[in-house]
């Protein structure tokens, strides 16, 4: 299809599922796919909506971290000035060099730091899944946790899968499905700091991952490369790395006032 315009388009709700189809399915796109199909984001694109050259997706729930997709860095650079309320852009490696200047210019700085985001999938059964006596799969019978499940629904067509460590009626560790696409399911995990290092997160994540696989889908685990506990859980459960992205984070430059002689 001939490319005829470099104009930045604001995606309409009707266009969002078309953009979801355009970015395709991969561990890197499952969250964006979920946001677009559930229409819980803002999105901008350049080119034809069915074959966009560049896309930026900004979740309503976490606007500080827009996600970049596309094949042409110059088109992503055109979109960046339209995005507000961001702290970083999650960017595929092949576009980093082309959009660094646009990111720093938008914040009137020349300094940039990066954080590596690592994507994993679990495409084999978990061998000897970890367990914990306080961790279990939550069901419809868990009336005390209905609100938690409602909060995780996120306008998804899929009911969340949730496992939790519960002590004295309080959730202290939680694993849940975060985003869905037809093939992949992203899993999120968190544990209260007082209960970390006890194996609860691994046990809860194992439960959720196995339930995802029972539904014929592939669990996805993404985390920063320097998050060693999260990386260890992924390795323990048998997740394998598939790709990496970079968060491009402008660093505010502090001007030092010139001294004056008296």
Describe the protein's architecture and organization.
By secondary structure, the protein is an alpha+beta fold. It has two domains: 8-118, Aminopeptidase, CATH 3.40.630; 135-237, Aminopeptidase. Helices cover 26% and strands 33% of the residues. The protein has an eight-stranded mixed beta sheet. Strands 1-2-3-4 form a four-stranded antiparallel beta sheet, sandwiched between helices. A hairpin with a 2-residue loop joins β2 and β3 (51-59). α3 packs parallel to α4 and α6 crosses α7 (228-237). The radius of gyration is 20 Å and the shape is globular. The model has no long low-confidence stretch (mean pLDDT 91).
Outline the biggest β-sheet. Answer: 8 strands, mixed
Helical content stands at 25-40%
Q: Which architecture of the largest domain per CATH?
A: 3-Layer(aba) Sandwich
Strands of the widest sheet, in order across it, are 5-12-6-11-10-9-8-7
Number of domains: 2
Distance between the termini: 69 Å
CATH topology of the largest domain: Aminopeptidase
Mean pLDDT: 91
**Rg over alpha carbons:** 20 Å
- Could you list the spans in which at least 5 consecutive residues all have pLDDT below 50? none
Tell me the overall shape. globular
Number of separate helices: 7
Strand content: 25-35%
Structural class: alpha+beta
Helices and strands, in N-to-C order? EHHEEEHEHEEHEEEHEHE
Briefly, what CATH class of the largest domain? Alpha Beta
Write down how many β-strands occur, each being a DSSP E stretch of 2 or more residues. 12
